[in-house]
Amino acid sequence: MNKIENDIIEYQINDGILFGRYKVKVLDYTMAVKAVKLRKEFTQNNSYPNLASGINVMSIEKEARDYFATEEATEGVLAGAVMINSIVQATLMNFFLRVSQPNIPTKIFTDEKKAIDWLKQYKKSDV
Question: Which CATH architecture has domain 3-120?
């Protein structure tokens, strides 16, 4: 299985990197939990660097931001790159990184190739 999706997010693995594309404009806590659960099912306890496209997302509720920074939510994620394409998203993600302080290396990107290049350093050699 190379791809899985639900009403919130679509995941696929390509060259040892997990790609996630959010489909919603607003992310709440329940959606965050569902997205993480689907990721864990899809990756079957394997760990990957993760490229999350938040291009569709316009806001993330506080409870969802807090959840995404927990060990439970980051379990199985070696590093996180977040794709954005607006000043609003940049402000939102910079706020998230300052306040929630995820326990994995996390960076914001507007260029997918640069994000992938950054994530490559975190790839497992056996995946």
Answer: 2-Layer Sandwich (3.30)
Q: Identify which of 69, 52, 75, 60 has the alpha carbon closest to the alpha carbon of residue 30.
A: 60
Task: Report yes or no: 79 and 50 within 8 Å, Cβ to Cβ.
Answer: yes
Instruction: Find out whether 108 and 82 touch, Cβ atoms under 8 Å.
Output: yes
Q: What is the C-alpha to C-alpha distance for residues 124 and 10, in angstroms, rounded to an integer? A: 22
Q: Which token pair is 7?
A: 């009403």
Helix (H) or strand (E) holding 18: strand 17-22
Reported pTM: 0.86
What does the domain layout of the chain look like in residue ranges?
A: 3-120
pLDDT in tens, 39-60: 999 999 899 999 999 778 888 8
